[in-house]
Amino acid sequence: MSTSFERYQKRKLISSYFSVILSIALVLFLLGVLGLLVINTKKLADHFKEQVTITVFLKDAAKEVEITQLQKTLSMAPYTKSAEFVSKEKAAEITSDAIGEDFMDFLGYNPLQNSIDVHLNADYVTADQLDEIAKDLNSKDFVDEVSYDKPLISLLNDNVKRMSFWILVTSGIFTLIAVLLINSSIRLSIYSKRFIIKTMQMVGATKGFIRRPFIWNNVKLGMIGSIVAILAMAGVLSYMDKTFPELGLTNDPLIITLLFFAIFLLGVVISWISTFFAAQRFLNLRTDDLYY
Question: What are the counts of helices (DSSP H) followed by strands (DSSP E) for the chain?
């Protein structure tokens, strides 16, 4: 009979430990994923900004040496990610493929112009910067027009600011939720041992002596939960990097390592603080209050 009871108690203890580890791991995993999103918010925003293109249309009278020199100048400019010359013949070919028929057969000539497509670095994709760049390019005699999507630029920047704000707000809320959930799990775990705590206290054990094994045990559970969360985050990060390699999510191993360390440390610190205050609460309870 005693053996069955011991097995029951052991299973109950393991179940209690498992629930604490699982709750810590799930909460820290969600918090870690959000942390990855916060870290990569700028990368995501920059990726979309760098899809913006300025098209510099050139006059038919533009000399080849002028076009070559302009392309080199643009390629070396701090705001340029890449600059590609597009001849009027290539532009006609692209347009024909897009509309599904050769429009030059109908018109009898090619109305398109030679151009240079300039992909910008993300930091320069603002309305003011683009106006300055366009003004400088338009000042050249052989440049006919500088074209870019102004409404798209404004919309893109507004959405990036809005997204960054809400990600930060969500991060704060999730951090608070993480602390509360981990604290609740640990308090429930200690609540089940409240009679043991009071018995030890009644036979003369000091508060520090009683608290110590609870703190160490829950800190170990916090470590295990943190490691599980980190492994899950590493799996998600690897999958995302293979699916969207252009985002370069793993290009900063130091930042990712620091995030993993922060998640591990957060699990340990929250477990330690929650256990300390939960144990202290039951140590300060009167014996009659243990039943409520």
Answer: 9, 4
Alpha-carbon distance 234 to 256, whole Å?
9
Same domain membership, residue 133 and residue 168: no
Q: Tell me if 168 sits within 8 A of 38, measured CB to CB.
A: yes
Q: What is the mean pLDDT of residues 33-56?
A: 79
Closest CA relative to residue 227, chosen from 177, 272, 283, 265? 265
Task: Give tens-digit pLDDT for 180-222.
Answer: 777 777 777 777 677 777 777 777 777 777 778 878 888 888 8
Taken as a whole, the chain contains a residue count of 292
Domain end marker among 96, 121, 148:
148
Reference 284, options 178, 207, 209; nearest CA is 207
Q: Could you please report the per-residue DSSP string of 117-157?
A: EEEEPGGG-SHHHHHHHHHHHHTSTTEEEEE--HHHHHHHH
Q: Total structural domains in the chain? A: 2
Question: Mapping DSSP to helix (H, G, I), strand (E, B) and coil, where does residue 42 land?
Answer: helix
CA angle 197, 204, 11 (to 5 degrees): 30
Q: Which residue range(s) make up the domain with 90?
A: 53-148
- CATH code assigned at 115: 3.30.70.3040
Distances in Å between the Cα of 4 and the Cα atoms of 7, 12, 15, 105 are 5, 12, 16, 91
In which band, very low, low, confident or very high, does the pLDDT at 266 lie, cut at 50, 70 and 90? Answer: confident
